[in-house]
Amino acid sequence: MAVLWDLSFASRKPLVAAIDGHALGGGLEIGMCCHARISTPNAQLGLPELHLGIIPGFGGTQRLPRLVGLAKSLEMMLVRCNSPLYSREEALDLGLVDAIVSPNQLLDTTWERKRPWNIASLHRIDKIESLDEAKEILKLARAQALTIAPNLYHPLAYIDVVEEGIVFGPRAGLIKEYETFEVLVRSDTCKALLHIFFAQRGTMKVPGVTDLGLVPRHVKKVAILGANLQCRVNKGKLSREKFEKAISLLKGTLDYESFRDVDMVIEVSAAIFSVLEILLFF
C-alpha cells in the first residue's frame, strides 16, 4: 500500500494537503506524502501507532525522518508514543506543516501554495543526518527503547524499519515497513493494546448517562476534608508553585456550617457521610 501511495505522489502533479481538525495515523501519513501541508489553528497531528502495538504503514516510517530529521522523529515516536498529538505550533516548528492559516483561508492558501516542487517528501535528504551520525542516533534509540519498554518488540521493529530506509534507501524502507506492519498487526501485543484502547474509550460512554445529553453541573465551590497538600509537596508529587496556587484558592474551616452551599464534597473516609447527610439534606 505504501508503495502505491509513493507511486501516486511521485507524479509531477503538485499536491498540497489542507488539514483541519485531527490528522492522526494514516491521515497524517497521507499528508506527509504531499509536497506541502497547510493547517488551521484547530489542527492536531500525530502518529499513535506505537501506542497500539504497530508501526506506521503508509510510508510514515520513511517520510517522518526526512521531514523533521532522524533524531527528532525517533524522539517523537519513542518518547511521546503515549502522547502522540502535536499542536499547530509544534507541527510548524517540527516541519510537519508549512503554514498555519484560519479555516476560511485554508482552501485559498492551499491553492496558492501548489507549485511544481522538484523533490517529493520521500526523497528529501536536507534534514537527514550523515550515515555515521544516523547509526549513532539509531544505536542510542535502541537503548532508549529497551529502557522505556523492555518487554515490547514493536518499538525496536520501528527503529529497524527506519534504519533500513536510511542505509539502503527509502524504497527499501517502504518494503520493510510493509513486511513488519503485516507481522505486528497480527501480534498478541497489538490485539491487547487495541483492546485496552477501546476499553478506555468505552468507559466514557455510560448507558443511561452519556446518551441522555445531560449537561454537567457548573461547580463553583468544593469542600475538601483533610486535604494534605504539604505532604504531597514533601513527597515531590506537587511543585511548590502549584502548591502555592492551590493554597491561594482554599479557605480553612473547623466546622461544617460552610458546607451548606457547596456543589461537591471530597472525603476519603466514609465515617463522615452520615454527618454531611444531616447537614446538607435536612
UniProtKB/TrEMBL annotation:
InterPro entries per record: ClpP/crotonase-like_dom_sf, Enoyl-CoA_hyd/isom_CS, Enoyl-CoA_hydra/iso
GO cellular component: peroxisome
Domain of life: Eukaryota
Organism: Anisodus tanguticus
Family statement drawn from the similarity comment of this UniProt entry: Belongs to the enoyl-CoA hydratase/isomerase family.
CDD domains for the chain: crotonase-like (cd06558)
GO BP term, example: fatty acid beta-oxidation
One Gene Ontology molecular-function label: isomerase activity
Name this polypeptide is given: Uncharacterized protein
Keywords: Isomerase, Lyase, Multifunctional enzyme
